Structures are given as C-alpha cells and as structure tokens.
Amino acid sequence: MALSLPTQCPHTVNPLRRSPKPALLRRLNHRVCVVSAATPLLQVNDLKAKIVESNVEILHGVNLTVNQGEVHAIMGKNGSGKSTFAKVLVGHPDYEVTGGSVVFKGENLLEMEPEERSLAGLFMSFQSPVEIPGVSNDEFLVMAYNARRKKLGLPELGPLECFSYLMEKLQLVNMKPDFLNRNVNEGFSGGERKRNEILQLAVLGADLAILDEIDSGLDVDALRDVANAVNQILTPENSLLMITHYRRILDLLNPTHVHVMDKGKIARTGDLSMVEAIEAEGYETVSSLT
Amino acid sequence: MSLSGTALWPLGLCPLIPCSWSYGRGRGRGRGRCRGSASSDPYVLELAESLEDSLPSSPSPLRNLRMASSEALLSTPWPSRREEPFRFTDLSFIRNSRIHPVSHPYPVTLLTPLSDLPHPLYVGPLSALSSPSLIHQVSQFLSSSAPHHADLFWSINGFAAPDLTLVYVPQGTHLDNPIHLAYHPSHASDTMHLSNPRVLVILEKGARLHIIEDFSANHNHSYWTNAAFEALIGEAAHLTHSYIQSQSLSAAHIKWTSVRQESSSTYQLTEVSTGAKLGRHNLHIQQLGPDTVTDLSTLHLSVGDQTQDLHSTLVLDHPRGYSRQLHKCIVAHSQGQAVFDGNIQVNRYAQQTDAGQLTRSLLLQPRATVNVKPNLQIVAHDVKCSHGAAISDLEENQLLYFQARGIDKNTARRLLIFAFGGEVIDKFPCSSIRDTVRTQITNLLDPSSV
Description:
The complex is a heterodimer.
Chain A: H1 22-36, E1 40-51, E2 57-67, E3 71-76, H2 82-90, E4 95-104, E5 107-108, H3 114-119, E6 122-125, H4 137-151, H5 159-172, H6 190-204, E7 208-212, H7 220-233, E8 239-243, H8 247-253, E9 257-262, E10 265-270, H9 272-288
Parallel strand pairs in A: 3-8, 3-9, 6-7, 7-8
Antiparallel strand pairs in A: 1-2, 1-4, 4-5, 9-10
Chain B: H1 42-54, H2 61-75, H3 92-95, E1 99-101, E2 108-110, E3 122-125, H4 132-143, H5 152-160, E4 165-169, E5 179-183, E6 192-195, E7 198-203, E8 208-216, E9 223-233, E10 238-246, E11 252-261, E12 266-273, E13 278-287, E14 293-302, E15 307-316, E16 322-331, E17 337-346, E18 354-363, E19 369-378, E20 384-392, H6 396-403, H7 409-425, H8 431-445
Helix pairs in contact in B: 2-4, 2-5, 6-7, 7-8
C-alpha cells in the first residue's frame, strides 16, 4: 500500500460521511468496514511500554487491529493509558516499549524513527502541541510537505508553488491566511492549536490519523469545523483512531469501533451503543463487563 | 617567554625602576625608551617595545591618546584569571604565541564609495584630515575618552593604533546608505600578527548613520585583531551599528566598543560573532543626558574549540533612559565556551529608567560551557528594570514535533538553532547582511553543505 498525498481538492471525499443523518452513516461506515476488513493497517499485539525516566509501566499488553477505512475511538478514564498508547505509536522518546509488537502496513513500526513513521503514513495530532518560536507556520508546513514529496520521489516545491495548495487546506479548517505567517503554535489559543494540527493532517495526508483529544478545549463551532475537516480528509482508504472523553465528536465522526481502555489495556470493544452505556453507568461498570 | 621574534632586550637587562615612557619615535636601544616600572609586567613591557617599534610616524592628534595609553599600558600587568573581568576567559592562547605587531597596511577599508557622501561629512583616515577644527575636536575627545573599566587591550590599541578611521557626520545630516568598514588582518605562518585598528564616529546633533563593521576572513590563519571603536552620539542623533565578527578560528579577536550618548540620542547595536578561537567584545555605553534609547542585540556562536565573550556595561546617570539588551549564545562543541558579563548601572539620577536585559544560551553538546553573569545595579528608586537568564539544550518536545511531521532530527535541530539565532540576525537593518550571516552560520553548523 503506497502512501498517498492529498494533492488536490478533497475530491475523493466520501460525501456520505458528511451526511447529517447518523443512522444512515453508521450503516454506511459498517459497509466500508466490511469491504476493507481484509486489509489490516495497524496491528498492535500485546504492547507493553514504560516511562523511561521513572521506569513505571503504563501499557500492560494492548491489543488492537485497525483495518483500512475504519474509524476507531478509544475512551477511558484519565490515566488509563490512552495518550501513552498514541505517543508510543508515534515513537515519543519519553516511553520505551518493553514488549509486544506493532505492525503498520506490514512493517515493524517499532523499529522506525518518529519521522519514518510519519513518512510511512502515520499521523498523530498532539494533545498539547508545542510552541516553536522563530519558525513560521508556512515554513514548517512547506518543509514537512516537501519531506513527504521527497519520500514519494516527487520534486520538492518552493514556498510559492506550495502557496495555493496551503490556501486550499487552510479553508478546510476555516482559518485566515495570516495563520500561515505566525510562528508554529506560538501564542495560539487552544482552538487554534487544534485547528493547526488538523491543517497539518490535511496538508500531509495520512493512512492512519491518530487524533489525541482533538475535541478538548474546543467550543461548539470549532469542534464542528474540526470534525468537518476530518470528514473531508477521510477517504474509504484511510483510517482514523481518535482518543476522546466526549460523545459529541463521536456523533460527528461516527466510529465503527469503540474501545474502552483501562489500566493499560483495551478492556472492552463495541460500537457506538457502548458510549451510551458509558455515559449512563461510567467506565468502571463498562470495563468490568466482558 | 615566547615573544622572541621582536624582543630587543633580554629581560634580565630591563631595569626595574620607575621610569618615564617616551611616546615619540626614539630609535636605538634604551634611548628614550621605556625604563619599566616597579608594578609592570615584563611581558607587557616587552610587548610595548615591539609595539613601539612597529609604529609609523603618527598624525599628531593621536599623540595625546598615545601618551595617555602608554602610561596605562606600563602600569597594567597582563590580565590573569584571578581578575574578575578575565575569570572565565583564558588569554594564554595569545600569550603563548609569538606576537608580531604590524601597522602597515592599515587593516580598515571603506567599502562605501566616497563619491556618495555629502560634504562636509568626513569618512577616512585621520592622517588625511585637513580641517584644523575637526582635528582639534578629535584630539580633545581622544585624550579623555577612555572608558571607566578600560583594560590592557584598550591601552594597547590606544598606544599602537597607527592611524584612526574617522567618521564625522555634521549636524542634522542623515546618511541613507550605510558606511561599511571591512577589516583585513595580515598574517604570517610563524608569528601572530597583531593589528590595532581604531574607529571614531562623531555624530553631531540630529545626525543619523548606519555603520557596518565587518571583521571577516576566509582563511584559517593565526593573527590577533585588537580593535577599538568609539562613538560620540550627539543630541537626538541616531547611530545604528552592525558588527559582524567571522575571523579565522585560529585567530584572537579582542574588541572594544565605547559609546557615549547625549540626550535623546539612540544607539542600536546588532552583533553576530562566530569567528576567532578567542573572541572578546568589551561593550561600554555611557549615558550623557536624559531620554536616551539603547538597544543591544548580540549573538555569539562557538562551533569549535572557541571562546566567545561579551562583557558589557551600560551606565545610566540621567532620567528616562530606555534600554533593551538581548544576548544569545550557542555553544555547539564540547570544548566551546561562551562568557557573558552584562552590567547595567541605574544610578541615582537615572529616575524613570526602563531597562531590560535577557540572556539565553543553547548548549548543544555535553561539556559545552557557558558562564553568564547578568547584573543590574539599581540606585534610583523610580525605575522599571528586568533581567533574565536561561540556559538549555534544544527541547526534545520541539524536535519530536518536527519528526512527527516527517522532518528528520538533524534538519529539525538546524532549524531550531536558526530560529534561536534568528531573533538577533533579523535585527540587522540590511538584508544583504542578514543573508551573509545566515549563510555563514549554515556553513559553520553544517560544513558538508558548503
């Protein structure tokens, strides 16, 4: 499976994903899921990881398979290991894998450097994106976009050649052009940071996008913008893994699978109906059911 | 004693008695020459002699300066690490070299075409100046201009500067194009050539000037540049000063910048120093009247076994002064070192001063060293002053952010280092200088890209 670049307008968007009717969507997602069930994108097997500095093990054997075209959500209590799981997948140096395996597009993900994972088609939106003073947003995007083009054997583009492409993506997240001139995340509001993460996803494209609490700290309008953008970026070929505490984004993005994480493991897997049970009875009850 | 190339007396013959020092061109051993003094350092005496031998007949206005400097020179020993100003700066590199003072050719060249300069503005050697009144003014200034903390190197320059480059901008004159001074060191393979370029800038009331001092070198020769730059900024005048030091990594570069600011004047300095094995900048700014603006931005980079040192003093004695100082250091080598001693004095009458100082250092290798001593001395009570110091490596979080978007770690590091230095580089008013400096730094950080 080759990494694809979203080089044009969101032409490959599945329009049905943007349908306002959740019931229909759920069924269609299900269909997509059935079609692509044979193509595993990410296979996580008994993954164990610890914090390097304190030697504390956080992940105690995570098992998860994400197939092409699926939309997964991971929920769970604070401290259950959701974000750690996401960070381990992108190769965060604060964590060390102590056991298990992760195969992404048929390759051993754990042997790759973080930038190789990105170039292989794995994207993670950071929960708290770091400020980078002195580096402008457009400079950063052009550099990252060119790194991807280079990987694909395409010629690198100058800033001017990238401009119209960036402008188009900017509209997707509903931001003004001056957003590009500002330094990466410097002085950004919480909402601007999240939009910036989605902008990066739109520019770079991904086979698997991991959205770590992309909805936290967003107001209703911003959440809708972000969800709309994600829906437009999604195609039947790529997949989404989101980590969230809230139902609202689940209703907007319609996961095909919902997992509950507890004590460093996936404790339970179901569909959207499980979210209702969580809201009614809490994580403890839901994760103890097997 | 390594100053063998030019020593005229065996040390044992140097009479250790208080003496008078002749600043003229006395020829012949012993006649009209230094007799030493009880407190002086034999090494310095020897150096002084070789300096004197190197001097051409000087223009008379320098005579007062030379006289004042000779006295100071003979009573000042070679600085030791036990003295606070040199506590972290090891001068043995100079001391262990064979020094050979040279005064010809004069190392300063003017790159700005003279035809562009309006009359009666003067840019050129003092020796070629014909206006008696201006000569008198310069002579008066030079004999009284030594900064309070002047050290041995100031005296060496004052004594041995063969000429002086004068930039005189009369009242109300605005110069649109910068005055660009290039410094060319002379070098030899077996000795360390010492040159003493000296520049004096006089801006009269309301004048405006941008001056560029460019100390560059393409070769890896060993030499010692001991430069002095003085400026007198008249009332409401405006001096922008760009200073680029990219000399040979086998060279010593010692520089004094001494600036006096009259009321409502502005002084803006942007410095990027990346060259020399030993680089030392002594920056002294004295406020002579109220409402002055002083803006200092400096970037020091050590990519090898190098010391980059900034010792700055800003003395505020009058009300409503405004000053900002930003000093950044990057040490990218395990034997590299950066030193910063930044002193700001807000004295009794300097009420309503607004003074800010910030120093940030990046240490990119294990054992890379930085010694910073930011210090504010505040006597006035109605003032707004701040200072801060930060020392760190690049942040892992920032590096990961680049990597997570497919940009490799080395590229990310380089970009982050650039972003760190960019804050200073962006302050150069000329885009050509910004580009030159960026290219220099790119080449220094990544020699393979040359």
